[in-house]
Amino acid sequence: MPDTQPPVATLIKQGAEARVYTIPFAGRPAIVKERFRKAYRHPTLDEKLTSRRVVQEARCLHRIRRAGVDTPTVYLVDLKASTIYMEFIDGISVRDHILATSPLNHQHERELATKIAKSLGVMHDMDIVHGDLTTSNMMMRAGDNPSLVLIDFGLSFVSTLVEDKAVDLYVLERALSSTHPDTDSFFQAILNAYAKNSKGGKPVLKKLEDVRRRGRKRTAFG
Amino acid sequence: MHPIPLPPLFAPPPADVPLATVPLAGDGSPPYVMYIQPFTDVQNAAEVKKLLMAGDPRVPEMTLVDASNILDIFQLQLACTKALLSQRDNTMTTRTLYAEILFNLCPTNKISEAFRKFGIADTSTAVLAVMVGQQPPSAEIQNMLATLIKGTPVGVDSVPGLADVKAVNKIFKLGSGQRTRNETLSLVIGTMALKGIMS
Questions:
Q1: In chain A, what are the domains?
Q2: Taking Cα atoms as reference points, which of A198, A147, A135, A203 lies closest to residue A171?
Q3: Rounded mean pLDDT of A83-91?
Q4: Does A26 contact B23 at a Cβ distance shorter than 8 Å?
Q5: pLDDT value at position A15?
Q6: Contact criterion met (CB below 8 Å) for A123 and A194
Q7: Element (H, E) at B198
């Protein structure tokens, strides 16, 4: 079959650590996330760090996908090029969704909060900490009764510590209050559902109180 | 045989070039294409397998895959792409590209297990012949294939219908929870992608 045009990758996002492109991949829309070289790091160290992070991200994505949380399917990992090929999610970010439908009605807010809490609960029960929970890193698939998709596991890691999970929620709380100022009740609804839906939820919520008092970083003294 | 294009790979641009678009796989050489021919009602699987394993000259170079564990062509495309990638990087686990394809289809790291579960078996009745190349297989090779396998050649569309979803669930240890076929395929694809870097 003759190609009409050479396929191209289109840059859709550039961050400090990686660039994200959309590409055609075996007839499916896909995205490729490339972690680029850091010129200021020693080349050997750079290679090690980059490849470890690529692997870590792909693993976390796949592990919680297997546990039943919706995440983009990993298609291919090219360690040499530090790239991950994954499913392109057709949908909108929760951030845009909230901004577009603001103010949320009570019923809808509760449903959305429950979906988010369930995903976070399963993820934390698997001892995976997302590391960058914001409403931009959550998406809703297009269609009726859209499932909630967690994306961007670039900062995720495995941890059994209640502290890390509490900080994860704290990051979300701060992100929510800065992007969506009048949604205190929304975060509270997420916490309530989280307590109900995750096995290790109670201690995490208790720890969250501590984290709120002192901020994300633990004190460096003593 | 039916040509199935393999996904072109992404070559990262230098970090200081702020390109909005990057052409994929533009190294001048013709891209690799997977050629596949499914057969149903295969009567001589045991014989074919024996010839294949003996490296008989009547058998063209290819992978013969048992169709029951293939939910979608996508699985084969990925296995081929990964094999070509390992060939490029000199990180192949097996000795040949065609063995590597079978190996990539299987979730575990045992080569013999991959052959047993995904390769043609004595009892196979539906078989997929898979070749990879930059040129389509010659008429001679296609004739060899047609005389070798006593079965009905069918279209690529029939591949999903030849799969045994239960067997796939078992091989990939996906449990028996209710899920759609697409969801199962996603889990299979993800598991294949993470093979070798999961633990």
A1: 10-87 (3.30.200.20), 91-214 (1.10.510.10)
A2: A135
A3: 95
A4: no
A5: 84
A6: no
A7: none
pLDDT tens digits, A187-202: 999 999 999 988 888 9
Q: CA-to-CA distance for B164 and B173, rounded, in angstroms? A: 14
For residue B169, give how far its alpha carbon lies from the nearest alpha carbon of chain A (Å).
Answer: 12
Give the CA distances from residue B48 to residues A190, B44, B45, B140, B149, in Å, rounded to whole numbers and listed in that order.
59, 6, 5, 18, 7
How many CA atoms within 13 Å lie on the side-chain side of B123?
3
**Domain parsing of chain B, residue ranges:** 31-194
CA distance B119 to B127: 9
3-state secondary structure A79-125: CCCCEEEEECCCEEEHHHHHHHHCCCCHHHHHHHHHHHHHHHHHHHH
Instruction: Report chain B residues whose CB lies below 8 A from the CB of A80.
Output: 88-89
Tell me the CATH class for B31-194.
alpha beta
Q: Which residue is associated with the tokens 């021919």?
A: B37
Cis peptide leading into B107, omega within 30 of 0? no
Chain-centre distance of CA B151, in angstroms?
A: 20
Mean pLDDT, rounded, of chain A? 89
Find chain B residues with C-beta within 8 A of A59's C-beta. Answer: 194, 197-198
Active-site choice (A46, A96, A125, A132): A132
Type of residue found at A160: T
- Cα–Cα distance measured from residue A203 to residue A209, given in angstroms and rounded to the nearest whole number: 10
Structure tokens at A136: 């931009």
Q: Is position A132 annotated as part of the catalytic site?
A: yes
Q: Suggest the residue from A5, A13, A20, A21 to mutate for an interface test with chain B (most B CBs closer than 10 A).
A: A21
- Pick from A73-82, A160-169, B22-31, B38-47: least confident: B22-31
